[in-house]
């Protein structure tokens, strides 16, 4: 029996050596790949940019991520009531309009689709899911316009130039 054990051990070792080597290479490759990729819950960084719509001059930038929420709010110029829009940032750099809230309804208020409900003084359209490449408007400080990111104020009305065309867009990945 003692003569068989070395023979079997040598034979077993020689047949496992290529498998063991391949397993080590696969483990090292997986470790390198896993270590170099971002964690699953961390999305790539994008850049929110506020620029002059005519000249292209960049007035403000902020690092953002896909799925961040942008809230725009202002006072409607005719009805003089609050208006809010909620957008999700998409990984493609587009904006997804998901919800609009307003307190008065009249001429010029678009019918977005989605679902409608009334909550106290607010009329709310949800599940709009309209994809937009950017947002443009003529800024008026009398509208008390505000930009929030994930419930934090980014821009107040006085931070933006009065009576100028503005563009809010999401730019590609920050390097």
Cα-atom radius of gyration: 28 Å
Termini Cα gap: 66 Å
Please tell me what the overall shape is.
Answer: globular
How many strands, what sense, and barrel or not for the largest sheet?
7 strands, antiparallel
Strand order of the largest sheet: 6-7-5-4-3-9-10
Rounded mean pLDDT is 80
Number of DSSP strand runs: 11
Relative helix content: 10-25%
Q: What's the helix-strand series?
A: HEEEEEEEEEEE
Parts with pLDDT < 50 across at least 5 consecutive residues: 1-12, 19-41
Domain count: the total is 2
**Count of DSSP H/I helices:** 1
Query: Which class best fits the helix and strand makeup?
Result: alpha+beta
> Approximately what portion of the residues adopt beta-strand conformation?
35-45%
Give a verbal description of the structure.
By secondary structure, the chain is α+β, with helices and mostly antiparallel strands. It folds into two domains: 1-37; 45-171, no CATH class. It is 19% helix and 44% strand. The chain has one helix and eleven strands, in the order αβββββββββββ. It has one helix at 4-36, and strands at 45-52, 58-65, 69-75, 82-89, 95-102, 115-119, 122-132, 134-139, 146-149, 152-155, 164-171. Strands 6-7-5-4-3-9-10 form a seven-stranded antiparallel beta sheet, with no helix packed on it. A hairpin with a 5-residue loop joins β4 and β5. The longest helix has 33 residues, at 4-36. The protein is globular and about 40 Å long. The model is unreliable at 1-12 and 19-41 (pLDDT under 50).
